[in-house]
């Protein structure tokens, strides 16, 4: 189900004060405050910016952006938690011949992206239909193809080497 997101006024902590890669209560508190802000403004999820004003991550997932045929996400050094789901998406992209790049993402790039998607263990892959006041295309040939491959793999429909499933009985 597509979602709506906003860019939070709350900032992701910096590596020198409290490294975002450490899963600790104060890091989660910033995400909590951003979610409260988002709910007040009618958003399902919020994007946190880092100390340089660039995209770190959403409050509970990574951010995937499509521009000019490339799937782009922020590196962990920008304040994103390391994510198995984002890593799997990268492997799926490469297997499909889609350019997958980790690099800093400026806030303004989100507004002119061809497509946005949130990626996380709980969220899986959720297309973004609106960010702040900007409407986004929900179906595009690139992330639709990646999402189809991802869901087929994690649901055991079509195996993929990036997704290691274990049968639980």
What does this structure look like?
Helix 2 (84-95) packs across helix 4. The relative contact order is 0.17. Strand 4 (62-67) and strand 5 (70-73) form a beta hairpin. With 169 residues, the chain is an alpha/beta fold. The mean pLDDT is 90. It contains four helices and nine strands; from the N terminus they run βαββββαβαβββα. Strands 1, 2, 3, 4, 5, 6, 7, 8 and 9 form a nine-stranded mixed β-sheet that branches. The longest helix is centred in the first third of the chain and has 16 residues, at 25-40. The two termini are 29 Å apart. The protein has one domain: Alpha-Beta Barrel (D-amino Acid Aminotransferase, Chain A, domain 2).
The N- to C-terminal Cα distance equals: 29 Å
Strand content: 25-35%
Mean pLDDT: 90
Number of DSSP strand runs = 9
CATH domain class name: Alpha Beta
**Integer-rounded radius of gyration:** 16 Å
Largest sheet: number of strands, sense, barrel closure: 9 strands, mixed
Summarize this structure briefly.
The chain has 169 residues and is α/β, with parallel strands linked by helices. It has helices at residues 25-40, 84-95, 107-111, 141-154; strands at 3-11, 45-49, 55-58, 62-67, 70-73, 99-102, 115-120, 124-131, 134-135. Strands 1, 2, 3, 4, 5, 6, 7, 8 and 9 form a nine-stranded mixed β-sheet that branches.
């Amino acid at each position: 189900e597509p979602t709506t997101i906003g860019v939070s006024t709350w900032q992701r902590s910096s590596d020198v004060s409290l490294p975002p890669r450490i899963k600790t209560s104060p890091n989660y508190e910033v995400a909590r405050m951003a979610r409260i802000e988002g709910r007040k403004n009618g958003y399902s999820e919020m994007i946190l910016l880092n100390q340089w004003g660039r995209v770190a991550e959403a409050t509970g997932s990574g951010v995937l952006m499509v521009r000019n045929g490339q799937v782009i996400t922020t590196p962990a050094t920008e304040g994103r938690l390391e994510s198995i789901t984002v890593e799997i998406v990268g492997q799926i992209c490469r297997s499909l011949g889609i350019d997958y790049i980790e690099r800093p993402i400026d806030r303004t790039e989100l507004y002119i992206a061809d497509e946005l998607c949130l990626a996380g263990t709980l969220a899986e892959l959720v297309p973004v239909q609106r960010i702040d006041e900007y409407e986004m295309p929900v179906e595009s040939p690139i992330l639709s193809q990646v999402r189809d491959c991802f869901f087929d793999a994690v649901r055991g429909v079509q195996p993929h080497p990036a997704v290691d499933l274990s049968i639980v009985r």
